Known about the structure:
- The structure is a single chain.
- This protein is of the alpha/beta class.
- It has helices spanning 48-56, 82-88, 110-120, 127-137, 154-166, 184-201, 212-218, 236-241, 246-253, 292-296, and strands spanning 6-17, 20-32, 37-41, 63-72, 75-76, 93-96, 172-176, 204-209, 221-226, 229-235, 302-303, 309-310.
- It has one domain: P-loop containing nucleotide triphosphate hydrolases (Rossmann fold).
- It has ten helices and twelve strands.
- The strands form two sheets. An eight-stranded mixed sheet has the order 6-7-8-3-9-10-12-11, with helices on both faces.
- Helix 5 packs parallel to helix 6.
- Bound molecules: adenosine-5'-diphosphate, iron/sulfur cluster and magnesium ion (MG).
- Adenosine-5'-diphosphate is lined by residues 15, 17, 22, 24, 42, 44-50, 60, 62, 274.
Amino acid sequence: MADPVLSVRDLQVAFTTPRGLARAVRGVSFTLAPGERLGLVGESGSGKTTTALALMRLLAPSARIEGGQARLDETDLLAATPAQLRALRFARIALVPQGAMNSLNPVLTCGAQIEDLFAAHGVRGGGSARIADLLAGVGLEAGVARMYPHQLSGGMKQRVCIALAIALGPRVILADEPTSALDVIVQKQVLRTLIAAQNRLGAGVILVGHDMGLMAQFAHTVGVMYAGRLVEIGPVRALFQDPRHPYTRMLIASLPRFDRRRSFVGIPGVAPSLLDPPPGCPFHPRCPAATPRCAAEAPGEQVLADGRRVRCHYATEPAIAA
Length: 322
Ligand SMILES: Nc1ncnc2c1ncn2[C@@H]1O[C@H](COP(=O)(O)OP(=O)(O)O)[C@@H](O)[C@H]1O
Ligand code: SF4
Ligand SMILES: [Mg+2]
């Protein structure tokens, strides 16, 4: 594969809260190649958004990046100055934020918001033809430029957000749950739009979500997050055919299937506290395969023959049915 466009090593982010330090991202490492689609999946609170915001350097003031590296080509994202960040955002790394459709400015037309972005980055010749092209690229008619966000459906607003994210041709696009508020049909259309835009740009994309089914259709590589850690990451096919972390197995087993008369079954138990995480493996209180060792010793990362990285003591042992 080509050299990575984004390379993240041992990223650590913590929030200061009234009840202590919440370590929301604990040693996340991955690379993203041009044209690659990485899906980051995990239940709510597992650190997906915090990871994305850390890379954009858009974390809340209560958050601190406590360690790690993140390189976008030759740029060290974690050391970039505010002026460098203003120049980088949208132009080289862009975010479709969680709840993006609500991030559009309600008092500006969609076209004006795109024009503002061009102007902020000193792009000349923005003009209505260019805006129409951009909108066409996300499946919207030119007339949308004259409309206000409240005049658009959820799917259309999400497409405008994607148009903003791709407007300056970034190398990396981070899309945080871009389809979660949409119905299934529109979800697929919006994802196809994102993929088409990515292919035109040759960009790397990180899609954040909690829907394993959507990841299976979208991603080349899937990373599963649990309590701030990547517990399994690897090629989508290998991960679905032979998941090696019990949590991945449970996420896949919980997918609705046509041949089973049951719909989504959640994973029993609750996500651990980040203020006071369980000792040993953070998944052990919920893990059907846990042994006494799991409560005492945190698993390191094992690298499998297919390149997968898995944080479980028993990653290379025969699967125990979840
Ligand atoms: N602004 C914040 N202040 C304090 N803690 C936060 C804040 N945002 C997120 N967190 C903590 O970080 C954890 C990870 O959150 P987040 O990255 O939003 O998860 P996800 O996107 O996977 O649902 C949460 O469990 C939460 O406790
Ligand atoms: S280390 Fe133990 S508790 Fe953790 S996922 Fe593996 S088997 Fe389960
Ligand atoms: Mg989130």
